[in-house]
Amino acid sequence: MFLQRYYLECLSHASYMVADEKTKTAAVIDPRRDINIYLDDARAHGFEIKHVILTHFHADFVAGHIELRDKLGACIHLGARAKAEFTFNPLSDGSSIELGEQTRLVAMETPGHTPEGISILAFDNTVDSKNPQAMFTGDTLFLGDVGRPDLFASVGVSARELAKMLFNSLHNKLLTLPDATLVYPAHGAGSMCGKALSDQEVSTLGEQRRYNYALQPMSEDDFIRMITADQPEAPAYFGYDATLNQKERPSLDESIAESFHALDLATVLELQQSGAVVLDVRDAPDFASAHLRHSINIGIDGRFATWCGTLLDKDIPIIISAEPHQVTEAMIRLGRIGFNNVKGFLKGGMHSLTDRTDLISKTQRIAPSTLREYEGETTLLDIRTATERKAGHILNSVHIPLNHLLERIAEIPLTGKVIVHCQGGYRSMIAASLLEKEKRDNVLDLAGGYQAWVTTQNPVHLPTS
After folding, report:
1. Which residue blocks in 60-201 are alpha helix, DSSP H?
2. Domain spanning 250-361: which superfamily?
């Protein structure tokens, strides 16, 4: 049995290819929307991808099932409880996908994170035909955690009902399998589909049984209380993506082809004036040194898609401002979360502003060592999460999480200096650009964020033990 893991760091997303090495028949599980990585691997190994399986309707990204179907004619498989606009093969408990004499995949219905969730058991008959070698648990069982049950609470199933389903799926189904079974989930650390995910690539069921906090012996009621508490706030685009994964839709290649237009400066300014967002995807230092006035900075080298989905509107046109090599990548990453509203990119990037310095803005960045020089009317704005702030914060700082910044902008003074910081410096430039777009001209960025502040041994407020 061939098994390959593919990890997309910016979305903390894991997908998998399983193949029978004799028949060369392959299946892809929970694919990303840009499918070339699977096509290249299949070509290199001589595999034919005949099956694509979604363990559930993902909320944090748009899956590549439509792309693999359209490109290769692969059969789409979903849990038997799923409802979708496209044709699919429903998988219930015990449904089998025979890849060949050596390899078969068997479905197990494991609702809880979502109503239609399934896990996929992989059997290698050359090793053991009775017990699975691996299981692909989607968002039901993570390494160190389990899937959150609250994301689908708005579609007619309560978080409590889903949590009850999850308890049953874990204790009466997955945990009945042998301890040696390898566990391959759909997400790792950083995903908002759980609250304590590990950064391990793979584990065994036995190891998870011993060390995963959510699998420890407890009553169903205790499990429900624990698993529904303290979940991170889900980004606004999650519901949109979960719905989009159920729909018939254009492929990513089609969406990018419609968006790939080089727009001259005059056209960009006209679109911006009419409400379009100019999204500058360069690194914070480059953006700070010069950018088109009132553009928003979300650096492509950070958690780009997550913050775009959190802060931008899928229905408002987007124009990309980037270095030439970043344009296509930015469109792909936006496409991964279903943001197909890109109208084009600024032709020539910042070079197009060479003769229009009146359109250039700059963002002042200061080092932690110079912060004390800003006396008088100064507001230190902490835009980290509540969890980060609880672990320690700069004395006398004001806390407004980045995802609530614009709705609480009235709390930020119009006068004096506003110095923004996050944990490491990536999100604070996003915040500074959002404030600048709202015509706040008193904003500075604390380079390096809280981490740099602590490293330079400045005073902080730490939680009491």
Report:
1. 65-72, 159-171
2. Rhodanese-like domain (3.40.250.10)
